[in-house]
């Protein structure tokens, strides 16, 4: 890992810096939405208490202020996709370089194996290292960049929610945390299924490689149908695992898509009942947006 970081640090640093900048840019959107709603409602006595940006208390704001907010929201939503696209492109290039380097290293090592080592390492196992294991390192680059931004996501989101809801935000956070065991269970099941998929993929790749390397013997003895059935059986097992992963992902997506409404309902109930607060359009819409944004880093944290 240290060798990979050392050889690609020049390309990784801009990606990591961008990952740190993105949370600040992302949370500008709900802050600007709150200011726009304040501007539409007009000046009020308690608007400054929940304001997420600087405002002119008690004074009617000019039209240019509202236009500036609207333009800023447009700019944020235009910049964010470009930043995310840059990160995805950079991660793809870095991951591809790492994968290519690992494949080349495995290939060079395979060419220099001693006769005894060749007997212990089959062609299928070597091919599997090149086609499957190298890809895992490619995916690791993306996970590294995501984990860099998680602390900033938490701090910014919780601060903005506290400015809006006070300590009532804890009800929403607890409701989100209550979903973490379900997310952990999902991650654990997915890990098991992924291990099963890798095993079946390893077996299929190994079997296919060994059959192709001995295709003359297979054709000589007329074993095409028998070996084709073996490959199809291995592939069917792999497809069965993929099917189970897809069904589980679909069910969990529905559950977590509806969780935002539950979290918002719990939070607003506590805010009105125990916090003696008054729900305004700004509090409702901005809080729901922030809870949606908070749910993403918590899900990533649970997935590991």
TrEMBL record:
Against PROSITE patterns, the record matches this protein to: ABC_TM1F (PS50929)
Q: Which UniProt keywords apply?
A: ATP-binding, Membrane, Nucleotide-binding, Transmembrane, Transmembrane helix, Transport
- This protein's GO CC annotations: membrane
GO MF entries = ABC-type transporter activity; ATP binding
- What are the ABC transmembrane type-1 domain coordinates in residue numbering? 28-304
Protein location: Membrane
Superkingdom:
Eukaryota
Membrane-related topology note: Multi-pass membrane protein
Instruction: Give a yes or no for keyword Cell membrane in this entry.
Output: no
Stored InterPro entries: ABC1_TM_dom (IPR011527), ABC1_TM_sf (IPR036640), ABC_transporter_C-like (IPR050173), ABCC_6TM_D1 (IPR044746)
- Which Pfam families does the UniProt record give? ABC_membrane (PF00664)
Q: Where are the transmembrane segments?
A: 63-80, 86-107, 167-185, 250-271
Keyword field contains Lipid metabolism = no
State the protein's name: ABC transmembrane type-1 domain-containing protein
The organism of origin for this protein: Modicella reniformis
């Amino acid at each position: 890992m240290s060798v990979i970081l050392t050889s690609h640090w020049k390309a990784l640093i801009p990606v990591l810096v961008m990952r740190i900048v993105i949370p600040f840019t992302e949370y500008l959107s709900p802050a600007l939405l709150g200011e726009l709603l304040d501007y539409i409602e007009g000046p009020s006595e308690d608007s400054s208490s929940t304001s997420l940006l600087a405002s002119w208390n008690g004074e009617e704001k000019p039209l240019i202020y509202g236009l500036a907010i609207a333009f800023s929201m447009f700019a944020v939503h235009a910049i964010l996709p470009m930043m995310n696209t840059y990160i995805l492109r950079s991660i793809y290039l870095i991951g591809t370089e790492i994968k290519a380097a690992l494949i080349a290293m495995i290939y060079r090592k395979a060419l220099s194996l001693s006769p005894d080592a060749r007997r212990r390492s089959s062609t299928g196992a070597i091919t599997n290292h090149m086609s499957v294991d190298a890809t895992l390192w490619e995916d690791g680059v993306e996970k590294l960049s995501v984990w860099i931004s998680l602390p900033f996501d938490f701090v910014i989101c919780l601060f903005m929610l506290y400015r809006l809801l006070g300590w009532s935000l804890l009800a929403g956070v607890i409701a989100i945390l209550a979903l973490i065991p379900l997310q952990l269970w999902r991650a654990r099941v997915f890990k098991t299924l992924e291990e099963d998929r890798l095993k079946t993929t390893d077996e299929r790749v190994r079997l296919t490689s060994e059959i192709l390397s001995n295709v003359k013997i297979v054709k000589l003895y007329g074993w095409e149908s028998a070996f084709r059935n073996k490959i199809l059986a291995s592939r069917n097992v792999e497809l069965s695992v993929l099917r189970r992963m897809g069904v589980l992902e679909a069910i969990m997506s529905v559950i977590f898509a509806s969780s935002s409404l539950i979290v918002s309902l719990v939070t607003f109930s506590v805010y009105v009942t125990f916090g003696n607060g008054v729900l305004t359009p700004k509090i409702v819409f901005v809080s729901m947006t922030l809870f949606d944004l908070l749910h993403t880093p918590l899900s990533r944290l649970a997935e590991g």
